[in-house]
Amino acid sequence: MTPEALLAFDREHLWHPYTSMTDPTPTRLVTGASGSRITLDGVGEVVDGMASWWSVIHGYRHPVLDEAVRRQLDRMSHVMFGGLTHEPAVELARRLIDLTPAGLDRVFLADSGSVSVEVAMKMALQYQRGFGRPERTRFLTVRGGYHGDTFDCMSVCDPDGGMHAMWSGVLPEQVFGERPPRLDGEVDSWAAGFRSLAAEHEDRLAGLIVEPLLQGAGGMHPYPADCLTVFREVADEHGLVLVFDEIATGFGRTGTLFAAEAAGVTPDVLCVGKALTGGYLSLAAAVCTAEVARGLSASESGVLMHGPTFMGNPLACAVASASLDLLASGDWTRDVRRINTGLQALHAIDAVEVRTLGAVGVVQLDHAVDVVKATEAALAQGVWLRPFRDLIYTMPPYVCTDDDIAAICAGITAAAEVG
């Protein structure tokens, strides 16, 4: 099929994320990708300022990751995980236990980030049942969060300003505290309100779930590390399972390997995904403590009631281990610092607010972005971006050069001017 025919069929028959099937926004045809760049039909190579939604941290067609996939293909591409195991899954679990905060040593391999959050929530519910508290069926969280698009995940996303407000009345009703403050000096007053809310609802709460340090698709909102200590203290005081959703923040994005490390806090369950495989294949994990595993095993089922068909997929596990090895053997901290330095150029943009954290840069406008116009303006600067709401942002691959980051800043500037 010609590029024109492919795009025409796509427009007529394929849904894309958060788009209309009857009046879809334009799509671009990708014909290749390498390093920090993707190749678009009719445009040529452009810097990918999105790292394919924050997952391609090592860049495209990385030789080490390519080889890991080829090597695993020679052995097997998939085998069911029920009653069977294999070296790639065992090796990945070993690496995750070594890398995550101490005490997290039980690994559930899921096939997407949303599923890992669903599993974490199920862990919390079964944990409470195991301790004779079946009435604890609700979750405490904060406004402004985003945890995925499946049903329980949607219930802990922002109930008003988030992407799932239309499901009000259908989803379980969770308990929402105020969004964490932006400034260190405001933490104490926010914490007092959050502690009071937890105490008020303690008898029906099973767990506390948040995105640590940076709320992602709910608004790209960073907040002080001291808030993580508050979450840990509240969970301990009220017998809650503390879940950190690090699908967006894990593997160095905010400047520490996991955002939890910024406050030296260990959650009871840690969810990871996105960059876990370097963007090669869909894979996620919910890593929990032995205490959580014992508690949920004491529930009436005696087992964790979840088992995806592609759980522990060998191809995905093999490339994930290779990706983690690249992180361990490289200098990702230097790259993230270098990217952050380059992103400081964004502060020259006239906007409501510009914020940077690790390898994240965000420009907030005073109006909703015209996605089509903003995308075209960025492409004219040789950069692929995907704005949403009133935000134009970047979470680029760590392999971006200084010139790539300068181009991304120019693309965001151009997008802000027309968007």
UniProtKB/TrEMBL annotation:
Domain of life: Bacteria
Subcellular location: Cytoplasm
One GO CC term, this protein: cytoplasm
Primary site of residence: cytoplasm
Keyword field contains Membrane: no
Catalytic reaction(s) noted: (8S)-8-amino-7-oxononanoate + S-adenosyl-L-methionine = S-adenosyl-4-methylsulfanyl-2-oxobutanoate + (7R,8S)-7,8-diammoniononanoate
Swiss-Prot/TrEMBL GO biological process terms: biotin biosynthetic process
Cofactor(s) of this protein: pyridoxal 5'-phosphate
An example Gene Ontology molecular-function term: pyridoxal phosphate binding
Chain sites annotated for binding substrate: W53, Y146, K274, G307, R386
Site entry (Participates in the substrate recognition with KAPA and in a stacking interaction with the adenine ring of SAM), positions: Y18
Positions that bind pyridoxal 5'-phosphate: G113, S114, D245, P308, T309
Record family assignment: Belongs to the class-III pyridoxal-phosphate-dependent aminotransferase family. BioA subfamily.
Biological role stated in the UniProt entry: Catalyzes the transfer of the alpha-amino group from S-adenosyl-L-methionine (SAM) to 7-keto-8-aminopelargonic acid (KAPA) to form 7,8-diaminopelargonic acid (DAPA). It is the only aminotransferase known to utilize SAM as an amino donor.
Record PANTHER family: ADENOSYLMETHIONINE-8-AMINO-7-OXONONANOATE AMINOTRANSFERASE
Quaternary state and interactors: Homodimer.
Protein name, entry field: Adenosylmethionine-8-amino-7-oxononanoate aminotransferase
Species: Saccharopolyspora spinosa
